[in-house]
């Protein structure tokens, strides 16, 4: 919740849409939404006449096998929302066939491989053939509509092919970020009851091989129900173990199949995918997204928020393992028949110009990344950016965490050359697509504010304690949404009760986002960060409980408490406090071992930046750990600890402050 936009209010610098968007050069179309009046008219229609608004947009952007007659039903109170429920469609048909039929040579994916200079393209015609071939393989494995398939792959077009092949048959995919450990993968495969895992022999990141298949092998030791592992050959490494008949090579299996596969129409409300994300408790939850509403949300936000027109080349640097990769590398761009860049490497390989060289080489028109990458690249200096030709860029976006005004301004001036619109998009795995965002041709931006709600999203700021809605401007509280929208998650796989308890019960009648927010005097929304036990490291969500249980898994650990510390580069970092069992000696070697334990159990993204061995944790008299105190101490705010009357042993405070100041 600490961020330097805390002080910013209505007086912040304001940036109107750039001239280049408002008055486009010859051959460019005007932005889809080119004034606030236009935004307001459409927004009002989406709220006041939702049936009319959504019927029009859902028919404009999607092709239905069976048209829907009913737009929306259910309520946030009951948690039984459904959209376009009597309509049927196929997601892969919408994302691939429509464009392959019309214009097979149009480029669907530009694949920027790890090694520079090895880019290649996949046209819509080629994509259709790849998706059909793979779908037939999955069908030959006995998979049928409703079955769930795990995908654990590097950032290569085949990861998208795997997702689309599932969608073609009405299978549900669950992509697991390939940076997660074997244990995390196993947990997700088991929870989603997958019988098939799709993977690659190895991945490559910054020339370093990632032993993807070996991690799958390790994970599957505890998942006996997995019958098939389909392996794409990415590096051709000789070291990859292959256990036939369980393991099947992708290329061999596809070669044996008919090249066409008919798409299976599904209900708009049939699930398209599960995506595991961290919540307040230790166990990651499988957020369920449905077909029709989700695809509409992804397509529509991309169209308006990035102002996508024919011929644009869109690049989102997120991994396919996260929701941003789902909505804005795969589903959104393809549903619009656009060209999407799949970036396999890292922003600093071979040097800090990689992103900007990418923009230059592929004439990228819209670029979307995370504040943590912006902050990291900024540290390398402007030359890495300015030596590249970025004149093709029109809209540049940010997602995943609050962007501090400094980073915003650098992004705008140095990357955007003050000629692009900057869109700070706020959303979540659960929202499926953007919910608060500027529109590039209309919104006057304020650095650090995600500005205004997207169409159909009715926001509220609630008093955190009473749940009362705070009316008017200049208010702060927790962020909530007052009605369902098409791309919102419908449930948590196998645990609808948890869905209700996490999102819909805390403030009945509202969707509770878990973030603090303010609405300034001009009605702009400012996201203040999570109000629950979720830590956001470089835009990756982790729960404190998840990291704590990984630490407790080590036999030296008696107790642990994990909190977020503010971090200049990654937004937040993980700070772990650990007490040891009797007989274990506190030393650096043990600390390293504990850090390694977390990496092995969850993955490198969960690595604690600071791990402090203490004799005692601050607790209430009834023995509950008071994390609030730890949070304040690591934020350097030990002088603002507030009410300490519940603390059982106040004498430990001085020790804590001392330990932290030597460790951080
Ligand atoms: C945070 C990522 C401020 C927020 C799409 C949210 C943001 C969580 C922004 C969701 C933003 C995302 N400004 N905070 N523009 N975008 N967040 O599920 O705390 O990985 O609740 O989805 O990221 O993270 P998730």
TrEMBL record:
EC supergroup of this enzyme: ligase
Keyword ATP-binding appears in the UniProt entry: yes
Lineage: superkingdom: Eukaryota
EC numbers: 6.2.1.1
Keyword field: ATP-binding, Ligase, Nucleotide-binding
Ranges of residues in domain AMP-binding enzyme C-terminal: 546-624
Pfam family, any one: AMP-binding
Region named Disordered: 1-29
Keyword Glycoprotein appears in the UniProt entry: no
Limits of the AMP-dependent synthetase/ligase domain: 97-484
Molecular function (Gene Ontology), one example: ATP binding
Chemical reaction(s) catalysed: acetate + ATP + CoA = acetyl-CoA + AMP + diphosphate
Listed InterPro entries: Ac_CoA_lig (IPR011904), ACAS_N (IPR032387), AMP-bd_C (IPR025110), AMP-bd_C_sf (IPR045851), AMP-binding_CS (IPR020845), AMP-dep_synth/lig_dom (IPR000873), ANL_N_sf (IPR042099)
Transmembrane regions listed in the UniProt entry: none
UniProt GO BP: acetyl-CoA biosynthetic process from acetate
Bias kind Polar residues: ranges: 1-12
Record's GO cellular component terms: cytosol
Residue span, Acetyl-coenzyme A synthetase N-terminal domain: 39-95
Coiled coil: none
Family: Belongs to the ATP-dependent AMP-binding enzyme family.
Full protein name: Acetyl-coenzyme A synthetase
Organism this protein belongs to: Coemansia pectinata
Taxonomy of the source species: Eukaryota, Fungi, Fungi incertae sedis, Zoopagomycota, Kickxellomycotina
Gene assigned in the entry: ACS2
